[in-house]
Amino acid sequence: MRPQGGDGQPTTQTAFLQLVLLSSLVGVGRAAVRDAVGFVRSRTRVYSQGSGATAAQDPLVQQVIGRISARVAAAEDAVLAAARALETARSATGEEREALIDAAELRTIQAQLTAVPDVLSVTTKLFEVGGASATSTSRALDRHWRNARTLASHNPVIYQERAIGDRLLNGTGLLYFWSTGETTTSS
User: Fold this and answer.
1) In terms of residue numbers, what domain contains 96?
2) Residue 59 lies in a domain
3) What CATH number is associated with residue 40?
4) pLDDT at 185 over 60
5) Residue ranges of the Acyl-CoA dehydrogenase C-terminal domain (predicted)?
6) Based on the structure, what is the number of domains in the chain?
7) Beta-carbon neighbour count of residue 9 at 10 Å?
8) 21 pLDDT exceeds 90?
9) Lowest-pLDDT range, 37-46, 78-87, 139-148?
10) Is 132 helix (H, G, I), strand (E, B) or coil?
């Protein structure tokens, strides 16, 4: 199946638009890590079960911060790799251009399948560093999860997972224009 835009020509438009969403999602993840670090550094009390004199010195809290930092880095790396593939496709000419557009679309979908669960996990796990005070409305840490969930909901991951599986198993082409309320199946 040939990736086509409205004019029947191969297009990088869908990958570009998805990368805008994914870049925003990574930004939410980075903000969540930044705010989690700031929150932990500001804490003066620790739990009776804690292992450090402060929350910042507690190895379990350090572990959570390390884990969420790594997940955001993985999401960012996946998005940057897709952006590089897209730039290669956009600057290509000749016979190789169509294959590069297809590769960029695939890489972008794969980045989505990495970034969405990673950032959603980060925006949930950040609450493990501070107990109930982390849910304070004045801190508004929940906004990170809400923002990530909103961005992730634009193009549901379950459909992209299936699309890649179908492609790898059956050679099915990727769908380049996504929409709601329309189907590509024929009657």
Assistant:
1) 13-170
2) yes
3) 1.20.140.10
4) no
5) 25-155
6) 1
7) 12
8) yes
9) 37-46
10) helix
